Amino acid sequence: MHLALSVARGPVRPRAKSVTASAGQSATERSPPLREGATVRVTSPITVWHVPKFRKGMNVQGLQGKIMQNVSVFRGVPLSPSKPWKVAIDAKDPAGQAFKFVMHLGDEEMEVLN
Q: How does pLDDT run across 83-92, given as a tens digit for each residue?
């Protein structure tokens, strides 16, 4: 009896969902493609911990920002990041002062506004 063994190198992650519209959606319901410079809104309930003014974490769902970069290619070498879009998010601190911070998002975690 021959058994095939495989070695797993860490958890297997599901492939990212495509942001293309299904066949049942009309052209007006489809969101524009993700691209650098596009304005986006965070649609997933994500808590970030790297914002200094929010030591207990900050929920970014509903905040808007601009896509700065797609990090899927680095110096001509294709990469496979789980969150390929580098986004500058506009937010307000508890005192009401506007500030920006950068985070990485996946295709399914945001929607294009323009």
A: 999 999 999 9
How many structural domains is the chain composed of? 1
Q: What is the number of alpha carbons within 13 Å of residue 8 lying toward its C-beta?
A: 4
pTM of the model: 0.69
Q: Is 77 a domain residue? A: yes
Domain annotation covers residue 48: yes
Q: Which domain holds residue 60?
A: 39-112
In a domain, 17, yes or no: no
